[in-house]
Amino acid sequence: DGYTLAHIRDKYEELKKDTTIQKFAQWVNDYSFNQDPQKLQGSAGYVLDDWVNGQYIKLRKKQNWWGNDIDVPWIKAEPEIINFQIISDNRTALIALKNSKIDIYGSIPVDDFLILMQDKNFGYKYNLHHVESTKLAYLGFNSRLPKFADKKTRQALARLINYKEIINVTQAGMVKQAVGIIPPIHLGYSDPNIMPYVFDPLRAKQLLLKAGWEFENGRWTKYENGEILTLHLNLQFTSGINDYESIALVIKEAFEKNGIPVNIQPTESRLLTQKLKNHQVEVFIRSMSMTLFSFDYRSLFHTSAAGLNGFNYTGFGNGHTDSLIIRTNRSTDPRERRSLIKEFQENFHQQATFLPLFFYTNNLAIHKRLSNLRLTPLFPGYDVTSMVSSVQ
Amino acid sequence: MFLYLIKRILLIIPTAFIIVVLAFFWGELSNSDQAMMDLEMDENMPYREIDPQRYQQAYHQLRVKYLLDFPPFYFSLKALSEPDTLNRIYPVIHRDFLRQMALEYGRWDNVSDYYLALVDLWKTTQMSASITQVSKVESMFQITQPGSIEKNINELATWQFPSFFSDQWQIQVTLLREKFELLYSQQTIWSSMVPIVKFNGPDNKFHRWMIQLLSGDLGISHRDREPVIQKILKALPITLGLTFTAMLLIFAIAIPLGVFLSGNSYPVTRNTLMNMLLGIDAIPLFLLSLLLIIFFAGNDFFNLFPAFGIGPNISASWWEIFSIRIYYLFLPLAALTLASIPFIARQLQITMEQVRKKDFITTARVKGMKERAIIWRHGFPNALFPMVTIMADFLPGTIGGVLVIEVIFSIHGMGKLMRDSVLSQDYPVILIIILLVALVKLIVNILADIAYYWIDPRVRFG
Description:
Largest sheet of chain B: 2 strands, antiparallel
Distance between the termini of chain B: 9 Å
Order of helices and strands of chain B: HHHHEHHHHHEHHHHHHHHHHH
Number of strands of chain A: 14
Helix content of chain B: over 70%
Strand content of chain B: under 5%
Strand order of the largest sheet of chain B: 1-2
CATH architecture of the largest domain in chain B: Orthogonal Bundle
Oligomer: heterodimer
Number of strands of chain B: 2
Shape of chain A: globular
Structural class of chain B: mainly alpha
Radius of gyration of chain A: 25 Å
CATH topology of the largest domain in chain B: MetI-like fold
CATH superfamily of the largest domain in chain B: MetI-like
Largest sheet of chain A: 6 strands, mixed
Strand content of chain A: 15-25%
Number of domains of chain B: 2
Number of helices of chain A: 15
Shape of chain B: elongated
Radius of gyration of chain B: 32 Å
């Protein structure tokens, strides 16, 4: 009592020394806010009932919840109990699924999903769903490096990527190539007029020649500012992720056939992030979950985020794209926003520093006794609170 | 024997101290910036953009909290040219750059002047230059070779800007060049080859960490801010229960099996068992676990046991809880037991075969003792020595947990805790687990010595 947000804003230095504020900060930062059911209370329809670290989390429906009287599809609390089981091994999870020990399993790996689709016995008990998600796999070029500084070079390299092969190898052909950063499910905002880059080595060579590269003795070189640049790639990605490794191998094969050596470097996750922030990575494969609710790309694609420790790892952007980002955020007219976002996407595509590959899908198995499904592109791909069981 | 034990127990202290120091330095070598990781975990990115100054303040507060501004140990070994206060420089890449420059050129005052001139230039560039130009200036924080620095400065001098900015730019580039030329002309390389040892006193990270440790404060997990001791107290009983039970089963089965295999009777049965054991021994633990799940927890064969977890937390009698746990842990126990029985049975078999040939066994037979009594009363105790050694190696594993089993069966024991901590670089947890395993190993070795003496009183210790 007696403290306001205005106080914190205007008298921050003074309040830092206030013992009451310090005690409050310690209380809020205490780990019990992550664990104590009495403190973990929200306005949604469930409370934390029981949990065992690393095993399960059980939620229980609130009895006098305000949402019970509201007839809105996304404000629901149908199941009495929701039990999230934590199963760290995929094989074990699949066996539990086949034994009907779990009702819903999301994020089923593609290969296993295909096998389940063929399994008739499984099909008697479960429905399989394939929902496009907002998680995007992409390839990034560090455009700060002289060899990638030229847009034509990057566009050429974009045409040396066999997108179909990547999708076949990693997603069994079950997804489409992404053309932008906005999920296609976001109707009216993703731009259908942008032509995706296709695998076209001939056009790639033409662009490289236009960018000043010469092909001699089996490699591409360029003379710039008194230096001879050689076109080769150090391709990094988080180690342990099979999809990234497969993508890297497909890229390596295509690039090396066209005279561009590729050195694949799987890197530990935190180390890779650190190197990306220090701009020590040349080319990288990553994924990112794009939001459906905001087009604020300042922290990702504005030039102010392109410095050390910023999230604009590729160095994308210029004055014009910065202006588009800012104007999009400020605009309150939906038509103007759509137009600005489309223009931004076109610029984004032209710059080719950040190459979208595909959007992942949420591969779900849901028991047939559950109805009133609400499938969503947001992780985990379903809204469990709306589901109704035919067996009580 | 008593004096020997006292000596061994007292030796635990310096041994444990050395292990603590090594574990601590292993954590230091990771060079992770926990303060930065904390800020990013809290998703403070917008905060960083809105109020960079307060973001910096928060960063420095966290550095104080994690003792990152303190020297690591009681004394520091460094080059004469290295300053004391490098660990306060942010970002980390600038710190590394300054260290390299100090080692390359020697004179810290000149290095500092050059660095400050470069920082000013960098800040100026961020206001009015393109991304490529900003990146170019940023890249100079990684360049220490004089030829490359000069080349870059020459390039910076050629950049054109609008007139209102151009003068300031040229002044700053000229200043940078002057600072570099002074740095280069006055370099004292010899000072980077002179090692000095600086005594830091108790104001160091290790001392503070040890004080905390000795007072029972094992630290806070970086991942979720839970006290480390609570994390371990949740995981340890599960692992202890699992591996102690497995150990009892292993020895209960492997010992009679090993003794039986060392005999001459029932050759067909013995050969069959030997081949089965060899077959099981050839299967890796993870594959064995998966096979057990497929055969005994899957619908395709015998759906008898659960495939994951340890069962629900319920309020019931100890017997009911025990029954539930055994039901859920049956397959993990089976996997652990089957994986270890072949080795132990085989070791005992080999030892017993040698013991059976000894003279005292022949004497016992001649005296008319029954074969069973000869083997178990006279032969087996002489074969126990290697068993004690095997057990002494097995027990520390109970603390480290059986990682493969715990991951496959989703059992949140010490192995899984260690794995999750390593993946998330949760060093406070990793350090304590290492110390725990080391301590258990030391204690178990003493217990093994006592066991040797109890088995064979002829054993004398120096």
